[in-house]
Fold:
Amino acid sequence: MKILVVNTKFIGDLILSTPGLSALREKNPDAEIVLLTRKGYEGTLKNNPNVNRIISFDYGIKKKNFVKRVVDEINFIRSIRSENFDCVISLLPGDRIAFLAWFSGAKIRVAPRKQAFNFLFNILVDVEEDSISYLNYYNKLISAFTKEPINGKTEFFVTTQDEVWADEFLNKSNVDKNDLLIGIHPGASEPTKIWPSENYTELIHKSLSIDKAKILLIAGPNEEKIVEQIYNDVQNNDLLFYNSNNINLTAALIKKCKLFISNDTGTRHLSVALKTPVIALMPEDNKKCWNFYEDSDSHFVITGKRQFPNEGLPFLGSISVEKVFDKVREVLKR
Structure:
């Protein structure tokens, strides 16, 4: 059997689909499982043994002129059709994906019921985005095909080569195994999910007062300025900086951390999958859909209110530095 799983969202979403991919592999051990991702995110699950191959779709196609866009869309559909998939499981609604699934020729086509062209699928699942936890959302879609409930944990696989790279990086930065390495990712996709940079600066100053503590600042794409500002404001030899352009190398570093702190973004899901304790700073209105980990996952949430542009600078407010620092000390003592 040949199965195409479609998830063209982002890092956190791809990681959340890993329990479903594991269940899919267990149910179909000899199947070729192909994952369709957004271009630029192919590396996220490239080391996952439950995925045989990854293909990507370039959403930059929207910027092309009409003729070129239509030609590229048709060529992509033809390439999918030539694969002769037996099943397409779409983990999100969407007109483009609906037509892609239909023209793929797959006899089994699974997707959320609530979408404009749902008649192009033949297994419709009564789940909606932003109505239940996203972990349950992805699990329910894949279990509609496996016919069994999915309860596994998220996974992320780090290669030996990437672990060696991380060790070398930390050795060059004078970090040894006895140090308390704390990772911090101060960015996020939405401004209202970001804790103010000056708060992170203060938190780092406080955290560096802990015996043997060292801080690893991680910058994601387009976050260099925020992280460099924090780095320059702190000015401490025990503060490291890594400009991330490779999710697998970032994962190798996070795996070495005793604790990871981030906003509500993909790296918190990455940390949980790596079994690194994480403190997540989250808007309180995100709890319904995004606060689904258990205490056994060593995942700790501190919620605050979003502040919107008409109220001043947009950021995640109402979380005090002292509250986060108290949680840092509590987690490190465990």
The CA atoms of residues 6 and 90 lie 5 Å apart. The two ends are 46 Å apart (CA to CA).
